[in-house]
Amino acid sequence: QVHLVESGGGSVQAGGSLRLSCATSGLTYSSACLTWFRQVPGKEREGVAGIANDGSTSYADSVKGRFTISRDIDNNILYLQMDSLKPEDSAMYYCAAAKGALTADSTLATLAQFPDFGYWGQGTQVTVSS
User: Fold this and answer.
1) For the segment 37-78, what is each residue's pLDDT rounded down to a tens digit?
2) Which pLDDT tens digit goes with each residue over 82-123?
3) Within 13 Å of residue 90, how many CA atoms lie on the same side as its CB?
4) Which residues contact 61 (CB under 8 A, 6 or more apart)?
5) How far is it, in rounded angstroms, from Cα 62 to Cα 48?
6) What is the CB-side half-sphere exposure of residue 13 using CA atoms within 13 A?
7) How far apart are CA 72 and CA 114, in angstroms?
8) What one-character-per-residue DSSP string does the chain give?
9) Residues 104, 57 contacting (CB under 8 angstroms)
10) Number of CB atoms found within 10 A of residue 35's CB
């Protein structure tokens, strides 16, 4: 059974940094794509970043150069380092995973449209004040 548990959210001032973590179980990282999504109330869930089984990554244009996705294969943890945070980055952040040798781009697109295709955590709130 797959479980994902996010942590690391909080409140920070604009320009600050946060690192989100997602502890996973029931997944083999060599055959899964891991992603981060975010959602603001009243808006659709947005793909933020993804890391494929081969380690290749993909980012939303809005976070390129500021966010970094990484994984700890030995400890089954997914990370999202968020630097130079902006108020518009405020959202509930979710980690999500899809099994298979998928590219990060395709996984982000698929999970955005078909969320039931993947496994999701419960989310962690990030609030950035100006």
Assistant:
1) 999 999 999 999 999 999 999 999 999 999 999 999 999 999
2) 999 999 999 999 999 999 878 999 999 999 999 999 999 999
3) 11
4) none
5) 8
6) 0
7) 26
8) --EEEEE--EEEETT--EEEEEEEES--GGGEEEEEEEE-TTS--EEEEEE-TTS-EEE-TTTTTTEEEEEETTTTEEEEEE-S--GGG-EEEEEEEEESS--HHHHHHHHHH-GGGSEE---EEEEEE-
9) yes
10) 29
**Token pair of 74, please?**
């030995």
Q: How far apart are CA 120 and CA 38, in angstroms?
A: 12
Using an 8 Å Cβ cutoff, are 49 and 63 in contact? yes
Q: How far is Cα 84 from Cα 86, in angstroms, rounded to an integer? A: 7
Among residues 62, 65, 35, the alpha carbon closest in space to that of 51 is found at 35
